[in-house]
Amino acid sequence: IFTKSTKIKDFVYHWKAITHYYIETSDDKAPVTDTNIPSHLEQMLDILVQEENERESGETGPCMEYLLHHKILETLYTLGKADCPPGMKQQVLVFYTKLLGRIRQPLLPHINVHRPVQKLIRLCGEVLATPTENEEIQFLCIVCAKLKQDPYLVNFFLENKMKSLGSKGVPNVISEDTLKGQDSLSTDTGQSRQPEELSGATGMEQTEVEDEPPHQMDHLSTSLDNLSVTSLPEASVVRPNQDYNLVNSLLNLTRSPDGRIAVKACEGLMLLVSLPEPAAAKCLTQSTCLCELLTDRLASLYKALPQSVDPLDIETVEAINWGLDSYSHKEDASAFPGKRALISFISWSDYCDQLIKEAQKTAAVALAKAVHERFFIGVMEPQLMQTSEMGILTSTALLHRIVRQVTSDVLLQEMVFFILGEQREPETLAEISRHPLRHRCFQYNLFYCIMTLRMFEHLLQKPNEHILYNLVLRNLEERNYTEYKPLCPEDKDVVENGLIAGAVDLEEDPLFTDISPENTLPNQEWLSSSPPATPDHPKNDGKTEVHKIVNSFLCLVPDDAKSSYHVEGTGYDTYLRDAHRQFRDYCAICLRWEWPGSPKALEKCNLEAAFFEGHFLKVLFDRMGRILDQPYDVNLQVTSVLSRLSLFPHPHIHEYLLDPYVNLAPGCRSLFSVIVRVVGDLMLRIQRIQDFTPKLLLVRKRLLGLEPEGPIIDHITLLEGVIVLEEFCKELAAIAFVKYHASSTP
């Protein structure tokens, strides 16, 4: 047990024992583990920790003063760099790591701590797969953790760039020691300085070293000068700048063949990019290879994927957290060719996303733009625009996978600009060449159509205003799909009377009470999106209004073509609960977009401008028009995307997709008018199908799994289309009702 009087003596004794080794020993080939150096270093650490525990918080004891004033860390750095005796570098790294980790008082502000720490950082990552890799990453991570606790300290680690010394292999940074010509044992006050004070310091105060005979200092100084300080050959990485060596060393270690080391290095980078200091963020993106590392590795992992990866495998392979990228082909029962490469790519793209999500704002923007330019445009775009059908499917499935997993708002914005472009003015039918990739997404074969529609469905769930504006809203801004004149009384009677039959009484609906005020957001949080009041159907009490709209959709499909009432649990009310939940989710996403609560006044709209629904809605409406003649899977995907669009609480989307009474301008179509045309075609075609109703019911039961698969039924595509159409109309009715009720809830 140390007493206060013996602590400093013992501390000095252990340090002198280490220095005497270099003065007295001629054999420097014996490994450090054969000497007493590790034991002396450990004893010094124990004394420092015990000294701190016995003193007032923040008070520096004599042993710590001795370490700081006598520049012990500087000397240890020199010994570690020379790795003399062999293994000394490892011991020095451990000492630094434990010192920073176990001492609670802030040490890094001291010039005699942060300066040798900075130098030691430069030694880390120089050689890959070196025996000291584990100690290097532990040391770097404790430095990162200290910077996370006190972010301003990062300014000590941003070195000023200076002109190259003119010889190859010499770093383009002149250290403070070079400028001041100080030997390793010169002493100073060791007082802590602020970063701005440090940059202006021109010298250090000299003090007499007590207890240290001058001749002994000379002997040790000579011994240190004679040490070979030639480092091993550097790893094959480029360090164009030395501004932020902590980042550079971590970047090198991310390339370690040891996966655990690489993951720890990635964690260290994650801590550094999140530091709020603007100078550090600027240095990070402008003076290090971080952007290049992220994008180059993304590119190399992407290019390592086989061209023939099944898109379904890409979509369904289990999500891999970037830090848990461990995969054994032998243990995997569902292995497929390229799975290892696919998991590596998904894992690294997840890391890029998380890194940008955590990064300081300006750093995040720079990193995301680098991914956009160097990876999305440089690597992915040529693959997405190729002529090989299999290649297009694979690359589109990979893009969809990235869309699904991206969580960083900044990276999402860059991805959206890549896929859709930045245009916000209304589209024209001839406007294809402005963003070829966007147009490519709206064409090609049926399987490609399903895949791209799934991708757009996921995009529509992302919290990014530009997605919906670029795809839909910019074309509805002027409401020039409408013609400002009321319906003729005869037309109005036909519409109302023709659709009232078989109407559902919503006031008696058992779910009406479930969607009560306590289950909804306050009115101001639900953006008002009820059908607009127009001269031909003014809003009175609102209930009649919503009845008309709901019944318009429920009664679109004639009774002869309906089959849901033959199967229990498939009524319209089953969609209400889902619509309520989904609408609430969409309202939460859209709250910060400041959408209007009511449509733009017609007198302020340019109704004379030619209307084009846009390429996205054109594809959806065209596909909807072919619902009776295209595969079931395509129909499900088309209606799924349209129902998601209908849920958005924007008054123009509501009017265009959910208001059957909107007065369409000549040559314009709406979702309702498209369905009306389909129903007209259906009425003609079912007359030519024998036993239509029994066949329709059998197909529905098979789709629900209530009947086993049997012989192929004639007209199966049409029958499946009719079922999807009926369900879609019920879903639209539920969405219209839920949106109206939410907007009118006090």
From TrEMBL:
Domain FHF complex subunit HOOK-interacting protein C-terminal: 613-705
Residue segments, region Disordered: 178-217, 517-542
Family annotation (Pfam families): DUF5917, KELAA, RAI16-like
Stretches with biased composition (Polar residues): 181-193, 517-531
InterPro entries assigned: FHIP, FHIP_C, FHIP_KELAA_motif
Family: Belongs to the FHIP family.
Protein name per the record: FHF complex subunit HOOK interacting protein 2A
Organism, scientific name: Gorilla gorilla gorilla
Gene name of the record: FHIP2A
